[in-house]
Specification:
Layout lengths: L1 H11 L2 H24 L15 H7 L4 E16 L4 E13 L5 H4 L3 E2 L2 E6 L3 E5 L2 E12 L13 E8 L8 E3 L6 E5 L8 E16 L8 E15 L3 H19 L8 H25 L8 H34 L18 H26 L1
Length: about 375
């Protein structure tokens, strides 16, 4: 039994086994990114809107006008998540009973966090007592964007329609089935992003405008149109992560080098640190201007610390090797790896192999957590 255990331990020292682990690690990293990119994940918040309750509807009775609303997006003349800059070319329409609300009131609609660049004159049609009003609009808007998972993040663009000149007691956007329409063109051009899902919801918001009388509120009808965008372009992902992973895999590859080249092992570790520090300036140019750590920042910090620990390990192991060599009075000519066929593995080779598997295990656990969580 003991002989079998020793045989298994000696097999772990074999360069072929260590190289196989290195190759499996490479394909595991590729698999992680494939899974991460195939799953939609966005931390962007959706604007809050209060639903019109059944009790409110009973209070409204027939006094509040129900307005059907729809938004059709033709295109985005400007579309940039990094700069949070969007220009929307769309058509918006309202349908309501012609005797319940004035056209001038409908005409006072607006979009939150937006600036209307163009609004056409209303195009009005009447059918069976219903008035359909259509507007061509071009507006510049911004949305709440979260870059914690940059550059593996997906995003949401929320367009918030409101009317601050009327309350839900007088008019609200109908939220019944088939009343809230949201469509985007099939020819939508959004660069490296693809439309994943559409959703729309209507209700109202309450603004407490008096600090000393919180019961005073201004209510406004609101409709929120949200587009989920899934990342399809991988050029920026490759530009950021390929050099980073190349540097850290180079540091791990130093464990596979023969210990006869002990100077080269430490040099490779130092080269990985230098490469990471130099590439940080490139990453900074491609990253969004935010004050918190993104996924790229976390991975870079982990890689830099990881490469530094590998470098320190090689330096300390080399120091131990020379101390051991001096103590045992072993000649340099008796130390090549071919001697392993005749002599038991050196203690330094055992330490090097054990550290290799420990570093690989820690690397797999941390990088899996960072990418998948």
């Amino acid at each position: 039994m003991q002989a079998r255990v020793l045989k298994s331990l000696n097999a772990l020292l074999d360069i072929k086994v260590k190289f196989l682990v290195f190759v499996l690690l490479f394909f595991y990293i590729i698999g992680l990114f494939v899974v991460a990119l195939s799953t939609f994940r966005s931390n962007d918040p959706i604007p809050d809107v209060k639903m019109i309750s059944f009790e409110m509807r009973k209070q409204f009775r027939d006094l509040a006008s129900r307005v059907k609303v729809g938004l059709y997006i033709r295109n985005f003349p400007t579309f940039n998540f990094i700069n949070n800059d969007f220009v929307v070319n769309a058509m918006i329409w309202f349908e309501f009973n012609k005797n319940e609300i004035m056209l001038s009131t409908i005409n006072q609609f607006s979009f939150e966090n937006s600036k209307i660049l163009h609004k056409s004159d209303p195009y009005v049609t009447l059918h069976e007592g219903k008035m359909l009003v259509q507007y061509d609009v071009i507006f510049e808007t911004k949305t709440n964007i979260n870059f914690y998972r940059f550059p593996l993040e997906d995003h949401r663009l929320s367009i918030v329609l409101t009317n601050n000149f009327i309350s839900p007691n007088e008019m609200y956007f109908d939220d019944s089935f088939g009343a809230l329409s949201f469509i985007v063109s099939d020819r939508l051009f959004t660069s490296d992003w693809d439309v994943h899902a559409l959703r729309s919801v209507s209700g109202y918001t309450a603004l407490a405008f008096d600090k000393y009388a919180p019961q005073r509120e201004m209510l406004s009808p609101k409709a929120v149109f949200t587009i989920d965008f899934k990342k399809i372009g991988i050029n920026k992902i490759l530009l950021i992560f390929v050099p980073l992973f190349a540097a850290i895999l180079l540091a791990l590859f130093s464990f596979l080098m023969s210990f006869n080249n002990h100077n080269g092992k430490a040099t490779v570790g130092l080269t990985a640190i230098t490469a990471l520090l130099g590439y940080r300036f490139v990453i900074q140019q491609m990253s969004p201007p935010v004050g918190y750590f993104t996924l790229t920042d976390k991975i870079f910090t982990f890689f830099l610390l990881f490469a530094f620990l590998i470098f320190v390990f090689h330096v300390l192991l080399t120091r131990h090797y020379f101390f051991w060599e001096e103590r045992e009075k072993i000649k340099r000519a008796e130390q090549p790896e071919t001697d392993l066929n005749y002599l038991p593995p050196r203690i330094t080779e055992r330490i090097n192999a054990a550290a290799y598997y420990v570093f690989v295990s820690v690397f797999v656990m941390v990088i899996t957590y960072l990418i998948m969580v």
